[in-house]
Amino acid sequence: MKRAVAWLLVLSIGLVADDCWDDDDCWHDHHCDNFFVVPPPPAGPAADLNVDGFADVVIGAPLHDGGGPPGSQRGAVFVHFGSATGPSAAPSLTIFGQEDGARFGSSIAFVGDVNGRGAPDLLVGAPLDDGDGNTSENGIDRGRAFVFFGGPAMDATPDVVMTGAEPGAEFGTSVARIADTNGDGFDDWIVGAPFDDGDGNATDEGTDRGRAFFFYGGSTPDGVPDVTFTGPEAGSQFGFAVDSAGDINHGGAEDIAVGAPLDDGDGNATDEGTDRGRVYVFFGGSALDATPDLILTGDENGAHFGASVAVVLDVNNDGVDDLLVGAPLHDAGGGAGANRGRAYVFFGGSPPDATADVTLSGTVNGGSFGAAVSRAGDANGDGVWDFLVGAPLEDPGARTDAGSAYLFFGGAGVDGIPDLTFTGAEAGAHFGAAVAGPGDINQGGRDLIIGAPLDDADGNATDDALDRGRTFVFFGGSGGVLDTTPDATINGPQNGARAGSAIGN
């Protein structure tokens, strides 16, 4: 039986039935009603897909029907080009999933210029795509990921198609840009498949070690992985979260971070079920290999450390990139089973070490703080990088599961105290399930984006279970992002679409 990470069922798109959310057995059951796993989107670079000088907003709606019959849940991605007045109100480009039940748009990343043509490109995951080219759903769930080349004439036809190697692998659960790891002038990318058994067989034995597949860019990039990373422990769901680690070892090349939130953290290949979680870091360079160079381990059983990872660049202003890791089921001092959540900042160095330098803790029982993490650019305009942490199950203003997101300013004395708090306006919205700082959308300063995939988008503070989803944009300025009032709100176009589950970053 495949095991899914409990928090992820609610941290991103909440695709498990409401009556399952308090049932731990159900949370760990791949076959739970409406079950699906989606991590928060990884942090990445600012992206101007159409090369007009403005960063763009890209929103995933994995339960949208995507041009299929009602209830088909093919998934959709909506691209809103930036402008001097903000993101376009209506999508500038709509991309649909190709198969019923594919959940296209579950993960999204701007991947830089992978083909060397002068425009950023877009990577989208569809982890429940069967990978057989049919529009009907056969339950194979190999998973797929798609690269769409950017440019002024960007369209909805994928330019590179990648398919999971094994049934049930859910390839495309996570995606990320890894810049130019090997120094060939082309940006690279990575795709996670947390339910791959990691044995190289084309059959699904259910061991779920997990894998992550790395692809080099090139003038004609293809869908064949160049390096394959494999989880060392059964059931670890290695590849559930992936991202660049920046140049965390100050070695001159982009490094890679892979989260394994159900890794027991004891170094054994068998699954004892302690689920502390781990993050494996692989140092980049021309000789990139599949042996981890640094291993970070959760400090509490059941914390699911590594459920989210993000390079946050240099938040302590020492000249070396840093890494942010979420552990959304950590009790954080609230007692057994509190699931307040934590996030940890690991400063880079030469060499970096496995000891967290800053610990951030949720304060609300069941809040799942750390479910989503992202760099935020220089949000306050002080010249130092900042970062975001989502807590989508917090209850601000007594609005159950409305969700929160927290902005932390970087600096030499960066600490675990949030500097700005954003809150969901509707009960059950799961605001903070996705957080991003993609760049300057309106040419006024670094902007922030926060997704609320279960927001009904009807303006009511009560939960009417429409679940269209909403995405909120907060503009920066010369003084940074200094208030919590959204400057643009983008509503999901269909009941149940859960737009805002993933945000391009």
Q: Would you mind describing this structure in some detail?
A:
The chain has 505 residues and is an all-beta fold. The chain contains two helices and 28 strands. The strands form seven sheets. A four-stranded antiparallel sheet has the order 3-2-1-28, with no helix packed on it. Strands 4-5-6-7 form a four-stranded antiparallel sheet, with no helix packed on it. The longest helix is centred in the first third of the chain and has 6 residues, at 6-11. The chain is globular, with a radius of gyration of 20 Å.
Distance between the termini: 33 Å
How many beta-strand elements? 28
What helical percentage do the residues reach? under 10%
Uncertain ranges? 1-45
DSSP strand content? 25-35%
Spatial arrangement of strands, main beta sheet? 3-2-1-28
Per DSSP, the total helix count is 2
Biggest beta sheet summary: 4 strands, antiparallel
